[in-house]
Write a structure and sequence with these properties.
globular, 6 strands, alpha+beta, DUF1415 domain-containing protein, about 240 residues, DUF1415
């Protein structure tokens, strides 16, 4: 674990959970070690919740055509970054962007403390990230999508469509442009088809199983077998249409 000016971060891979972790100073006290153990447990909880959302919602509902391949090929890395200092968050994002520029796959930077209750404040950080990509001439190689527990499309209000981009924690998703282009080409080069299909799915779920159950499904939470059967039937119906 690396601790720097109040912010800490850990790297994970979906293959063995730990991708890379620096050791703490040998002069650390036993109480510090205990705290680090607690932090490690909390980070694993955050990771597991995010993986559940990714598997059950993003992949399980086919919300993103780009998501399953990196997970199956274990080219998806996940980094849990604590704190909300702008400079430190941006430094973590830049470091991962530079690493991802040279490696196939995608990265999720999960920021549990980065304004989880304030989407507008989080959105300001994402705009800084866009500026960072431009400043480092990375915008042609990488793109960063964002997810948030309170995500809201402009003008959408409390619409169910917001759940296409809602995640358990504030999250930044780093993707390689060339891999996105290949995925888009696989759906006839029209990424808007994904959005339209997802909205139709969520609206159908809301109509058939109700709003609370739809929100549970979209969050990647467990639902009873009857609800799960209905969800699977709706998914099959969408594939045929």
């Amino acid at each position: 674990m690396i601790i720097n000016r109040g912010i800490s971060h850990r790297h994970f891979s979906t293959g063995d959970y730990i991708l890379g972790e620096s050791s703490s100073s040998s002069s650390s006290s036993s109480s510090s070690a205990a705290n680090e153990d607690d932090e490690g447990k909390e980070d694993r909880k955050i990771l597991e919740q995010s993986l559940d959302w990714l598997r059950r919602s993003v992949i399980g509902l086919s919300l993103c055509p780009f998501a399953e391949k990196p997970l199956m090929q274990q080219t998806l890395s996940m980094e849990v970054v604590h704190g909300s200092e702008q400079v430190e968050i941006l430094a973590s994002v830049l470091s991962e962007c530079l690493r991802r520029q040279k490696r196939k796959g995608t990265s999720l930077i999960i920021c549990p403390d980065l304004f989880p209750e304030n989407f507008v404040a989080f959105l300001e950080i994402t705009q800084m990230v866009e500026g960072l990509l431009d400043d480092w001439d990375l915008d042609g190689d990488l793109q960063v999508a964002h997810f948030h527990p309170k995500f809201e499309f402009d003008g959408s209000g409390d619409g169910i469509d917001n759940y296409t981009n809602r995640s358990p924690y504030p999250t930044l998703h780093i993707l390689r442009e060339e891999e996105v282009s290949v995925a888009v080409e696989s759906i006839s080069g029209d990424a808007s088809k994904v959005w339209k299909r997802n909205v139709r799915l969520l609206e159908t779920l809301e109509e058939k199983i109700g709003r609370p159950a739809t929100e549970q499904v979209a969050r990647g939470e467990f639902v009873d077998q009857e609800i799960q059967n209905q969800v699977e039937a709706i998914l099959k119906g969408l594939k045929k249409s």
